[in-house]
Design brief:
The longest helix is centred in the last third of the chain and has 47 residues. Helices cover 59% and strands 0% of the residues. It starts with 36 loop residues before the first helix and ends with a helix. By secondary structure, the protein is mostly helical.
Length: 135
């Protein structure tokens, strides 16, 4: 006879349960999904520190560019599945740092490139003017 006052058996995941590092078959918090600038910009380096070994395909010519895009799209999920994290907050904090440093380095490279595009032709012009005045 069934007890109508007994709660039904359910296998529901608790909201605060940490499923990181357990592999592919385990549920993932919604805040894990999304684009990863760190994985996209630092592909193989990011892959080593997040134990996402498929990211080492970034070393293969022609496939590396495609792999960096795939890591940008799926990297956060793979990092959650492959490495044990203290909590979702810890994971998000670490991934934000990867993204921040990736964008800082890219923006720095852009600024240096712009300065070089201005400075090198100006320097060459000064050299030619000095040669013309001296000779």
């Amino acid at each position: 006879m069934n007890d109508i006052y007994k709660s039904p058996d359910a296998n529901l995941q608790k909201e605060d349960e940490n499923t990181s590092g357990m592999g592919k078959g385990h549920p993932m918090p919604d805040s894990i999904k999304g684009w990863s600038w760190g994985a996209f910009l630092f592909n193989w380096f990011w892959a080593i520190f997040n134990r996402t070994w498929i990211g080492l395909l970034a070393f293969v010519p022609y496939i590396g560019f495609i792999m960096s895009i795939v890591l940008g799209v799926k990297g956060r999920e793979w990092a959650w599945q492959n490495k044990r994290w203290e909590s979702v907050e810890h994971f998000n904090r670490v991934q934000r740092k990867w993204s921040k440093w990736g964008l800082i380095i890219i923006l720095g490279a852009v600024v240096i490139g712009i300065l070089a595009a201005i400075a090198i032709p100006a320097y060459n012009g000064y050299i030619e003017a000095a040669k013309a005045a001296g000779g």
